[in-house]
Amino acid sequence: MPGRTQQRPTAPDTATTTAPDTATPPRFVLWREVLVAYAAPAVMATAGGFATGQSELRIAALTTIAGTSALVATLVGLRHRRRSADSWAARGPVPLLALAFGLGCAALALAVGLAAAELLPRIPALADSPWPGRLRIDLPLSAAIAATMTTWRWRASLPRRRRAH
User: Fold this and answer.
1) In angstroms, what is the C-alpha Rg of the chain?
2) Residue in 69, 52, 87, 47 with CA at minimum distance from that of residue 139
3) Model-level pTM?
């Protein structure tokens, strides 16, 4: 037809033609994991503090809640990055691995939170502060969520092994 241009054939889209088993997973980048581990709970807890009118929750959102999440994500992420692809953590079921790391970090954080809630009120400047009492809840909850998410995302970044049928 006059005036019409002929369309060139396009190359097939490799994203849609690649099999899911051969697709490369996203890389595990620690600084991004730590940034998300800080920002997500900070935003959510701050929003909860504004919604409920709790000023101490807004302060804790940026300190104990988000800070604990970032610290745990850093430590767990550094540990995972040092693991080999043949380690037990790289081979085990993802939900079980994430649950184990989440519970383990929560138990450690609970011990730290209980000790801090007991010792910090002995400091005269913190004697009347409600902040040390929050540590019993803030630390283990933040640690559990951060460890679980970091472990899950680390495992998702590993290449999938082909299973023999």
Assistant:
1) 23
2) 69
3) 0.78
